Amino acid sequence: MNRSVLLRSRPVGLVAESDVELVTLPCPEIADGEALVRTDLIGLDAAVRTWLDDRPGYLPPVQVGETIRAATVGEVVESRCDAYQIGDVVTTLGGLSEYSVARDDVFTTVVGRVSEGTADVDRAAMHAVFSSTGATAYFGMHDIGRPRAGETVVVSAAAGATGSIAGQIAKAAGAHVVGIAGSDDKCAVVVDEFGFDSCINYRTADLSQALKEHCPNRVDVYFDNVGGPTLNAVLGRLAMHARVVLCGVISSYVSGDHPGPSNYVQLLAKRARMEGFNTLDNWDRYDEAYAALRTLVDSGSLKYRAQIFDGLEHSVDALNALFTGSNIGKTMLRP
After folding, report:
1. Which of 24, 137, 292, 295 has the lowest CB atom count within 10 Å?
2. Strand-strand pairing, 109-112 and 176-181
């Protein structure tokens, strides 16, 4: 049997228990070209919440009655696909479910092959670093941010899964890295554990004034995960020829309102560049990102945190933690 969390109604604001239903159904039967994957860990990102709205995006919305979509890491337990052997460990979009069906496509990646003796991999690390989370931080910072030694880099949602890695990538490049987070505890983790030079608690500080104090030479690179007033404040502190990386807008995912920054004129005044991106556009470069992240991890230059909720019955709490400010690092769910 297979337990899954289905979408029952479109959430308004945070996800309510009545918006979802935990059901038990027979395990999916696989066809030729498919494999059955037993889920070990589910990774939760802000994008999961956006897929529950009836709005177009880079992936179609989850339909009412469907299993809620999310990234997973798990073990192949049955296969009728040449790409996967029983015992292989894969990442895929398995969703909030104990079992899922994988195919040989862009959404499924083998991270440990049983035939090569590499199937004993750290599942939490696969979600927190060696997945779309780490790849997003890598491509955004490497391709668009391009931090150089001596430059000042600011990262919002710095205690989160992507922000924490993006900042550490910039730090490894020799930049002075300033984080923005929502509590003193988070700021302490950002500095003491993730190695940022400093961190601003935007809930208690005047952000514009704090940026002047923490970034006396202005901001060369801003890795934006939140949008809204935070983006507006950092735009007001840009250095000449700055690069702004648009990674996410977590401040407005729940409301659905995305007010534009009134400080956008600073892009003109500072000859700066602001660019959005999507990791799926670079999925053919996954090995490049993986190798770069592995080097940082092995050298001790990159650390991660995992916050794991146990049981599919805690799906709503785990997902909402991304928006209530209670999470640090990568939020995961163990079925």
Report:
1. 24
2. unpaired
